[in-house]
Every structure is written in structure tokens, then in C-alpha cells.
Design a protein that fits this description.
Number of helices: 4
Largest sheet: 5 strands, antiparallel
Structural class: alpha+beta
CATH topology: Cyclic Phosphodiesterase, Chain: A
Strand content: 35-45%
Shape: globular
CATH architecture: Alpha-Beta Complex
Amino acid sequence: MRVFIAIPCPDELKEGMIKIQESIKAAGNLSLVKPENIHLTMKFLGEIEENSIPGINRRLEFLSKLPGFNISLRGVGVFPNIGYIRVVWIGVGEGAEKIIRIHSEIDKNLKDMRFKTDKNFHPHLTIARVKFPEKKEYLKNIIRKNSTRDFGGFRVDRIEIMESRLSPEGPEYSAIHEIRLK
């Protein structure tokens, strides 16, 4: 099974993200993330055996001792850079440092299970994957115009272990375990 650890994004904050998606799709040859799939990935675990889920759950129990916290979603950005766009994302403003610290703890707690550590973790919510933008300048302009756009904020009260099932219509995500924060 293909698994990742994520913070779900409340539906009420997705309206502004959908507007950005609608504006960038004219750039051509990109894949928009379905609104119901928009989330903040804390760690991608990849293909794992189903029998490793209980061990992962145990190693992530520390999360239930952490207090909930607020984050704000701010700015549109890209990976790897504006000259070579492959991913379009919404950034995290307030709360980014907290997410980075939690990510580091997740990495440490899963290290003995031989998951790769993420060296350059950057908190974000992917909204599109770019194959080949036919209108590159158009896409760059939208990114620049929205680089500081405010998408609102929410209280992080849970972290989920998600399964990703790939299909011709795109990935389908489902929560297989939820960890409530204090």
C-alpha cells in the first residue's frame, strides 16, 4: 500500500485554491489536484506492507501529546523554481516553524523503520503538477501575482495516516488512522 502522513485542509479554505487552479489551467498540460485531495503532506512513506501500519501508529503516538495549533495559508509558490515549474503549491505562513519541528520529530521516530529522512522539507499544499506549461509566462505571472495571497487559516487538531490508491482518474486518498492532538 502507498502511504503518507498529512494534515487535512478544511473544505472552507479550498475556495481560493480552486480559483488559482482555474486560472492556471489555461497554461496547459498540467494536472490539478482534486479539491478533496488537497492536504499538507508531513511525510511521504511510499509503498509499505500493510503489517507495518501498527508499528508506524505506535511511533507516532507522541503526536497525541502535542497541543493543537493554528496555521495560516499564504502565497502561491512552485517547485523546483520559477524557471522550471513542476509543482504549484500554497504555502504556510503562521505555524510553519511548528510544522517543521513536528516533521523533524516524525522523521526521528520513524528512522528505525528505514524511511528516508526529508532533508529539505517545506510545508505546503500541492494544488497542481505541471507536465509542460504551454504558456509559461502566463503561469509565471499568476504565480508572481499571488505570491503573498492570503488563503485563510485553521486550527490543526489532527494528523492522519493516509493511503493513496492510484487509478487512471487520478489518486484517491483515504484516512487509515487519525491522531488527535491535545
